[in-house]
Each structure stands twice: as C-alpha cells, then as structure tokens.
Design a protein that fits this description.
Blueprint (H helix, E strand, L loop, with lengths): L15 H5 L2 H10 L13 H17 L9 H12 L2
Helix pairs in contact: 2-3
Length: about 80
C-alpha cells in the first residue's frame, strides 16, 4: 500500500545488512524514523518498540529455521496441532 502511494519500497528484513544489524538498529528506526519513514516515538511506547524489534528478529530467524531446530516436545505438539486442522 505504501509503495502504491508513491513511497519507495522498504528493504527486506531478510537482507544480510539487516540480519547483521544490532537489534538496537530496529528500535532506533522505529523511534527516530529512517529515510522517508516517520519517527514513531510519540506513538509507540518504548516497551512496544522493543517488542517489535524482537518480532523482527524472530521473523529473520524463522526464515532459515529447520524442523530439527524445534525441541522434540514442541515438535510433537506442533504436529498434533496441524493434524487437528
């Protein structure tokens, strides 16, 4: 939607530069903005900014995750959850 309104496309969170960036980078971008992104310090509480940064990290990690990375007990509950769907 943003791109359709004339803004440049944001970079993928999966590029090496952002995978290697410290988590503080994401917090700072949310706080202060970056490029054409507006700062969100007045609208997003600090704890929520950290939660968003942690979520970005989780998404980055999940992109290269393998089933063997999941602990066996969790893997079993996931399999049962999928079977019930």
């Amino acid at each position: 939607m943003i791109v359709e309104r004339g803004f440049p496309a944001p970079p993928s969170h999966y590029i090496d530069r952002l995978r290697q960036a410290p988590v503080q980078h994401f917090y700072d971008v949310i706080t202060n903005g970056y490029g054409v992104m507006y700062p969100c310090a007045a609208r997003v509480a600090p704890a929520d900014r950290w939660a968003i940064a942690a979520y970005i990290r989780a998404l980055q990690a999940s992109a290269s995750a393998h089933l063997g990375d999941v602990p066996p007990d969790t893997r079993q509950s996931l399999a049962m959850s999928q079977a019930s769907q």
